[in-house]
Write a structure and sequence with these properties.
Elements lengths: L43 H11 L12 E10 L17 E10 L14 E9 L2 E8 L12 H8 L15 H9 L4 H8 L13 E2 L4 E4 L5 E10 L8 H10 L3 H11 L5 E10 L5 E2 L2 E2 L15 E10 L4 H6 L12 E2 L4 H17 L82 H8 L3 H16 L4 H14 L1 H11 L30
Antiparallel strand pairs: 1-2, 1-11, 2-3, 3-4, 5-7, 6-7, 6-12, 7-8, 8-11, 9-10
Bound molecules: protoporphyrin IX containing FE.
Protoporphyrin IX containing FE binds next to strand 2, strand 3, strand 4 and helix 8.
Length: 527
């Protein structure tokens, strides 16, 4: 449970008051010079009411603006204790959580059922401090390096001239980007599948996407990817359903989540990890674990479940909780650490930076929904919206003046210093590993793992989307990408568009396909 804000709660008194707590005699009519006015500037109650209203809005999130949240509890099975010392993963430990689900590209008032990636962000209020698992419902990402994030988002957001959302008008910028940056093809293929139009937040998987580093009590490290598995299974909408719901009930997903919780049908997930040895190469079966456009198939690295999440309480106030919650990839607890994934590294900077603007200054961790459930003793002081009344005269460390905290030692079990990973001797550079250039083998595996009906949906989705692209060169370049993924996918989309399918120029032009082509037990070309 987070604390309930005390000021301004409407049920504290039977009287209406000013924000200063003074009982009001009248709040429906302003003070005027005579019955017919004009209104007097002297009416400071009028001014307080209007001024506060004038400042009710804060900036929406630059991405993931549209979302819905819920409170719940995470209970650990204890099965992760061999790989991580994180206290909240010890057997039987119960931790309060707040989860926010979201779409990525739409504005705060956009429709829930659009084709998009979904956010799945979880704040664990652990006894060792806050741990945020800020994931998505798709296990890979569009880009390999965070420096490209503004570019992909600029390409995906509504066109800057008319601000008409992509799905209703030209799709040129998005398809321009992903056909030029072929590393984005894998994520895009997941978006074009039924995963891109989730039926319910309750029926989505969640993925941490990046590889994390886990550290156990003995100081041994391993690499790991986090997975959420929904109890209700994974389900998508049909495209026609998504379109109709977008019109009839743009709030479909947030209503579904809130109604289910209110009705006692509490949504549940299991948290799982894929664990890999922490080798200097940071690869597993040839897959680069620092490349967030790649997943590790569960067939070769099974997901081991480590706990259960139940969402059982709707927020009391959307703005206070769902809108003001501030997730941060750097909210980590001892036993869980980041890796050098260049996407993850950029995220470590981005979240706090954007929240400084979005939440009006540096004290947003004091907002009730963000407040840690562990004692806080930082040396951070003052700033806008400072709610703490700090005592003492010496907010610096070490100090010899303040009673109770003069020479506080760092906790040897504390975060951030327990993982002395060696940085190889190397020159500063902007290059990336050669394996990062393989952009098509994993989307091909995904395509080959689909059932015939799922393939039909994917072909129809590409045909619809590319049918909206105005610039023929962009459409052709994207068709070429599909040819590199799988000629039958490309052929199906080209036929639906009345175009000729291009031939593959890359690996598939080679008569001896690589072993990766049969990794999921699929043969290529497919039977
Ligand atoms: C939200 C940046 C990649 C998942 C956000 C926000 C920013 C951001 C600025 C808004 C935060 C706020 O206003 O509080 C970035 C950058 C990325 C990146 C720079 C790449 C370099 C990712 C990836 C994932 C992800 C790979 C998934 C694994 C989310 C989620 C939210 C979010 C779930 C919504 C959090 C909420 O519900 O409040 N991101 N992001 N992002 N991001 Fe990212």
């Amino acid at each position: 449970m987070t604390d309930t804000p005390s000021s301004g709660a409407p049920d504290q008194t039977e009287w209406l008051t000013t924000s200063g707590g003074v009982r009001l005699r009248e709040t429906d009519r302003s003070l005027k010079a005579g019955e017919r006015g004009p209104t007097l500037l002297q009416d400071h109650h009028l001014r307080e009411k209007i001024t506060h209203f004038d400042h009710e809005r804060i900036p929406e999130r630059v991405v993931h603006a549209r979302g819905a949240g819920a409170h719940g509890t995470f209970t650990a099975y204890g099965t992760a204790e061999t790989v991580t010392s994180a206290g909240f993963l010890a057997e039987g430990r119960e931790t309060p959580v707040f989860v926010r689900f979201s779409t990525v590209l739409g504005s705060r008032g956009s429709a829930d059922t659009v084709r998009d990636t979904r956010g799945f962000a979880t704040k664990f209020y652990t006894e060792e401090g806050t741990f945020d698992l800020v994931g998505n419902n798709i296990p890979v990402f569009f880009i390999q390096d965070g420096i490209k994030f503004p570019d992909i988002i600029h390409a995906g957001k509504p066109h800057p001239d008319r601000e008409i959302p992509q799905a209703q008008s030209a799709h040129d910028t998005f398809w321009d980007f992903v056909s030029l940056h072929t590393e984005a093809q894998h994520h895009t293929l997941w978006n074009m599948s039924d995963r891109g139009i989730a039926r319910s937040y309750r029926m989505m998987e969640g993925f941490g996407v990046h590889t994390f580093r886990l550290i156990n009590a003995a100081g041994e490290t391993s690499l790991a990817k986090f997975h959420w598995k929904p109890k209700l299974g994974v389900h998508g909408l049909l495209w026609e359903e998504a379109q109709m719901l977008g019109g009839f009930d743009p709030d479909f997903h947030r209503r579904d989540l809130a109604d289910a919780i209110e009705a006692g049908a509490h949504p549940e997930w299991e948290l799982g990890v894929q664990v890999f040895p922490d080798t200097p190469q940071q690869t597993y079966e040839g897959i680069d674990l620092l490349d967030p456009t790649k997943l590790v198939p569960e067939e070769i690295a099974p997901v081991q479940t480590i706990g259960r999440l139940v969402l059982d309480r709707n927020p009391d106030n959307f703005f206070a909780e769902t809108e003001q919650v501030a997730f941060h990839v750097g909210n980590l607890v001892p036993g869980i650490d980041v890796t050098d994934d260049a996407l993850m590294q950029a995220r470590l900077f981005s979240y706090v930076d954007t929240q400084l603007t979005r939440l009006g200054g540096p004290n947003f961790n004091q907002i009730p929904v963000n407040r840690p459930h562990a004692p806080v003793n930082d040396m951070l002081r003052d700033g806008f919206h400072q709610d703490e009344v700090h005592r003492g005269v010496a907010p610096y460390h070490p100090n010899s003046l303040d009673a109770g905290c003069p020479f506080l030692a760092g906790d040897p079990q504390g975060a951030f210093l327990d993982n002395p990973v060696r940085v190889p001797e190397t020159a500063k550079q902007r290059e990336q590993p050669a394996s990062f250039d393989d952009h098509f083998s994993q989307p091909r595996l995904f395509w080959l793992s689909m059932t015939p009906v799922e393939k039909q949906h994917i072909v129809a989705a590409y045909a619809f989307e590319l049918g909206k692209v105005h610039e023929p060169a962009i459409r052709e370049r994207q068709l070429q990408c599909l040819a590199e993924i799988a000629p039958d996918l490309c052929g199906g989309v080209a036929a639906a568009l009345g175009l000729t399918a291009p031939s593959p120029k890359g690996e598939l032009a080679d008569p001896d396909p690589s072993p990766a082509l049969s990794m999921l037990g699929g043969s290529y070309p497919p039977d």
